[in-house]
């Protein structure tokens, strides 16, 4: 039986806490949850019991918005 790879959109890809921490460079769970509570980072989805996952699309959108804020702040400095 031949395996087929199925492409799914970013809305359907879920990342674990460790994957999100590694992507953002956080070393502790506390740093991640501080970002949620203080910086508007997206909250995880509860997928059962104590398991949580983040939508890839939510994480990437957050990163993009931070990049735009940084660009805007740098533009203000250069004016």
Mean pLDDT: 84
Largest sheet, if any? 3 strands, antiparallel
Q: Low-confidence segments, ≥5 residues, pLDDT <50?
A: 74-79
Radius of gyration: 16 Å
Gross geometry: globular
Residue share in helices? 40-55%
Query: For the terminal residues, how far apart are their CA atoms?
Result: 62 Å
What is the H/E order? EHHEEH
Q: Give the number of DSSP strands.
A: 3
Structural class: alpha+beta
Number of helices: 3
Order of strands in the sheet with most strands: 1-3-2
Fraction of residues in β-strands: 5-15%
Set down the secondary structure blueprint.
Blueprint (H helix, E strand, L loop, with lengths): L13 E2 L1 H8 L4 H11 L5 E4 L2 E5 H23 L1
Antiparallel strand pairs: 1-3, 2-3
What's the quick description here?
This protein has helices spanning 17-24, 29-39, 56-78, and strands at residues 14-15, 45-48, 51-55. The chain is an alpha+beta fold. β2 and β3 (51-55) form a beta hairpin.
Protein model, in words:
The protein is of the alpha+beta class and 79 residues long. The chain is built from 3 helices and 3 strands, in the order βααββα. It has a 3-stranded antiparallel sheet with strand order 1-3-2. Strand 2 (45-48) and strand 3 form a beta hairpin. The longest helix has 23 residues, at 56-78. The termini are far apart. Mean pLDDT is 84; it is low at 74-79.
């Amino acid at each position: 039986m031949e395996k087929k790879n199925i492409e799914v959109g970013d809305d359907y890809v879920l990342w674990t806490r460790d994957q999100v921490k590694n992507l953002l460079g956080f070393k502790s769970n506390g740093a991640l949850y501080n970002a949620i509570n203080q910086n508007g980072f997206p909250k995880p989805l509860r997928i059962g019991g104590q398991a949580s996952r983040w939508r890839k699309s939510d994480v990437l959108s957050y990163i993009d918005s931070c990049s735009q804020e940084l660009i805007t702040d740098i533009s203000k400095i250069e004016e």
